[in-house]
Amino acid sequence: MVAGYAEHLQNQKLVKVLKKQDIATASETKGVACFDLQKISMYNFTVFDLRPSKGHCYLWTEVDGAKGDDEIGTNLSNFIEKKIDEGITESVFSSDSHSGQNRNRMVFSMYVHASIKYNIKITHRFVESGHSYSEADGMHGRIETEAKIKQEIFTPEEWTDLIKTAKQDKKPYIVNSVKNEEWLNLHVLVDKET
């Protein structure tokens, strides 16, 4: 037991010497390793399809895009194309009046382009901000509740899994991950019209 204690004291002295060396080296070192642990922003554009009562979520990170008209228009275009594949020729959308996302020339131009290209009818109704509650709002609320329960979400894949399981009944939300190279440039459509 005495030998073990002597070894412990020897290791203690060694640790102090190494600590002094680290301090001396650190004062001479010009480079410093720093880490900024910050969560990446995730964006979720939701469409609730009333006819089959299914929620669709289009997810992307701040690395892949912003929350602007190109992103919203691209996601709407993808949704419309899926509906066309199902034989749907008329769509009615409703949303708030957020001009940066929903109520702008780029999204309108995408609607016109899709209507002409696919020979379909598209109607978009803008509800008065602050005076409505849509099914998409309900989806967001359910997802936020699940996120509060889970508390720690570190990757985009974990967000995808959380959203898929947020709805407990037989119709889970459909999640579509969108990457940077998939965005349409809706400004080109506007430039063609002017």
From TrEMBL:
Organism domain of life: Eukaryota
GO terms of molecular function: transferase activity
Instruction: State the UniProt keywords alphabetically.
Output: Transferase
Q: Which PANTHER family match?
A: DNA-DIRECTED RNA POLYMERASES I, II, AND III SUBUNIT RPABC2, PTHR10773:SF19
What is the protein name for this chain?
A: UDP-N-acetylglucosamine--N-acetylmuramyl-(Pentapeptide) pyrophosphoryl-undecaprenol N-acetylglucosamine transferase
Q: What is the lineage of its organism?
A: Eukaryota, Metazoa, Ecdysozoa, Arthropoda, Hexapoda
